[in-house]
Amino acid sequence: MKRILITGANGFLGQKLVELLAHRPGIELVATARGNSRLSFSEGYTYHSMDITDRRAVLDLIASVRPHVVIHGAAMTDADKCEVQKNDCWKHNVHAVEYIIEACRGINAFLLHISTDFIFDGTGGPYIETAKANPISFYGWSKQAGEAALRHSGLRWAIARTMLVYGPASNLSRSNIILWVKKSLEEGKKISVVTDQWRSPTLVDDLAMGCYLIVDKEAEGVFHISGKEMLTPYDIAVKTATCFGLDTSLIDQATASTFTQRARRPPRTGFIVEKAHAVLGYNPHTFEEGMARLVSQTKDSIL
Ligand SMILES: NC(=O)C1=CN([C@@H]2O[C@H](COP(=O)(O)OP(=O)(O)OC[C@H]3O[C@@H](n4cnc5c(N)ncnc54)[C@H](OP(=O)(O)O)[C@@H]3O)[C@@H](O)[C@H]2O)C=CC1
Ligand SMILES: Cc1cn([C@H]2C[C@H](O)[C@@H](COP(=O)(O)OP(=O)(O)O[C@H]3O[C@@H](C)C(=O)[C@@H](O)[C@H]3O)O2)c(=O)[nH]c1=O
């Protein structure tokens, strides 16, 4: 039995990981998150409340559970909030990673950490794993520092970098592009969406599967886990509207200079996922397949 502990189990990735791993043979799953569980089912795993910024709590819980693998999905993920609340961001995205590392060191656990395309400046995408990081936001900087802590940890570690994750979700503290586009258009609200940023949108199921493949093999190093296509948020918004039969005329084109956000976004990221394909057998859905899945799940009223 491989015992896997997940942090941030109430989050977007966390919920999907619990769904994927809870009943998988050979895995004993321990889900942890801040406060009470917001997971939609309670079988197939045990749940513990764990605040990742509380060093003592992290050290004590991980020492008592003694997982073989930790998947660290918890973080402060709102880039605009990170730009304003810098101390809080650093506590979550750097110091907490150090606590998890310290706890894993005590029991020789394999640690999978989740990182982001925002460690890049977005001038040279799509990126391979060895490309040079140069963050342009505080969130990106904090996530780069989190990565650095792993590299110097002496643990057996992996980093899964991902970007613009989309998919169905409930009870989340943060939305995702498909959900906010769909909700706005359903409410008849106009939205302005940028045409001058490029991303490889990632279906949350693919990200969860990428994480599973990494921990199953205990494959070490950095892996880019995203979709394969490069799309702008505007393209994504229009495709979302079309798939759900919503009014595309509510979507206005904007540019990064007219649609300003507190944290700067890198213009062109995107990942090359060849390494993950070759080493892990990672094979993500196309955006069209991902959307088709969402539309059929909506019919079962998940969205
Ligand atoms: N979503 C995306 O597009 C991308 C995500 N990532 C990375 O992937 C990882 C997972 O992100 P995702 O699931 O999408 O984000 P979410 O914001 O949905 O999940 C993050 C989770 O972390 C939890 N959390 C925050 N602070 C604490 C704390 N002090 N103690 C315990 N838990 C805490 C949140 O809890 P609560 O729900 O209570 O707020 C939340 O459930 C993160 O590392 C993120 O940086 C990288 C690139 C893209
Ligand atoms: C809200 C909004 C966003 N956008 C654009 C900006 C951005 O490029 C894109 C997505 O915006 P969001 O605010 O949903 O996501 P954003 O914070 O840009 O997304 C990031 O999340 C963090 C956690 C990451 O690590 C990144 O990889 C990335 O996925 O849509 C608009 O054009 N119009 C809008 O009204």
UniProtKB/TrEMBL annotation:
GO molecular function: dTDP-4-dehydrorhamnose reductase activity
CDD domains per UniProt: dTDP_HR_like_SDR_e
GO CC aspect terms: cytosol
Keyword Chloroplast: no
The keyword Oxidoreductase is assigned to this record: yes
Listed EC numbers: 1.1.1.133
InterPro entries cross-referenced by the UniProt entry: dTDP_dehydrorham_reduct, NAD(P)-bd_dom_sf, RmlD-like-bd
Catalytic activity from the UniProt record: dTDP-beta-L-rhamnose + NADP(+) = dTDP-4-dehydro-beta-L-rhamnose + NADPH + H(+)
BP GO annotations: dTDP-rhamnose biosynthetic process
Protein name (record): dTDP-4-dehydrorhamnose reductase
UniProt organism field: Spirosoma agri
Taxonomy of the source species: Bacteria, Pseudomonadati, Bacteroidota, Cytophagia, Cytophagales
